[in-house]
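Prompt: Have a read of the protein record below and flag anything odd:
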Amino acid sequence: MLLPPSDWLPKAPLEPLPLDWLKTAGIEVAILRLDRIDPLISGNKWFKLIEHLKAAERSGAEGIISLGGAHSNHLHALAAAGKRLGFATVGLLRGHPQQTPTVEDLQAFGMQLHWLGYGGYRARHEAGFWEPWRSRYPTLHPVPEGGGGLPGARGCVQLKAQVHQQLKDVNWSDYDAWWLACGTGTTLAGLVLAEAGDRPVCGALAVPGDHGVVQQVERILQEAGVAHSAYELFDASRGGFAKVDPLLLEFIEQTEHASGVPLEPLYTGKALMALKQQVEAGKFAPGTRLIFVHTGGLQGRRGFTPKQL
């Protein structure tokens, strides 16, 4: 069995986000705390995995093989799910062997690791990439990097229902738009599918433009048969993949102190800082109500030194 028991249905709390710059602008934000659904299978990663696990179960697979880096939140959640639910996991990692807190967890959770180098990892989108791995692990179901693709997006559709079930908890009757960090664009695509044009979805690109997020989102929506979609992307990469800087770190420290919400610097911290910039630029009219998605990833904070946090 790859799927969790039916009584394990993760629910993320929806909470007001009390920050002075939002109050000054007359904008309300409720934060969907995906970081709080589970200690290990955290954030949007579970939602992106669930449809892949269903497909693996239907095919009779005994486990999952997927890709990620040495700090990958996706591989961390996958390995934790495999250990908890008792299915095999294999990780294909970017770069050369190294020990990070995440890698140590992957090993402790029983994931078999293969390091591809950088050139080998770049080949992951090429035709035939999976053939040798399918031959080597014929009983495992391959899952794209980050749990991406249409199955990953479909798993994120249910986030809309979680918000609607809890609007009364923040004294709202409705909301105007979504805001979230984008690493592969899969969660954003899922929310676009869920909204079906009713409300716009705003994605803060936490990775540079050459990472193919726009193309990934368009592929998912085309495969799903979506002709018209309402989404917008904003650059939040701060100059590159996994780049942090003193202004970002200062913003995260101040925000955590003011709100009590833990952030990480690669995705959610960048997304919230980009939202502040757009709010101060007048992107949203006073009275706007936004759902901000905390996509988790807090385990990745361990890859930074105390001075960086």
